[in-house]
Amino acid sequence: MSKKILITDDEPHIRLLLEQALEDLEDYDVEFFFAENGEVALEIIRTEKPGLVLLDVMMPKMNGFDVCRTVKHQWGMDDVFIIMLTAKGQEYDKEKGQEVGADLYMTKPFNPDEIMAHAIRVLDIELD
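Above: the chain's sequence. Below: its structure in token form.
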């Protein structure tokens, strides 16, 4: 399992918040990557194959649903765990997230401790 995390959000402060929430994982050799839009995210996923992707839905150039669909359905990368983070919390949006292959769908504002718990589980990190 790749101990790499890709944080994708068009809002710089959200990327920073997620990085700060997860920064203790650097002690466990977790490597971080960042993307400000869906096109950059796809390039990083293709080349780096992160184990975990935190993916915003509403982004410029390519939205999170299209990124997730590409990764899961077109590329068949089932070993990439995708958590969609979004302000869109309607049932329709959650169903669309499942339809495109998201492993988890979380609405903003999110709990940083919950994000950390998912990262530890997904990347199979054993805490000291």
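Residues 4-122 form a domain with the Rossmann fold fold (CATH 3.40.50.2300).
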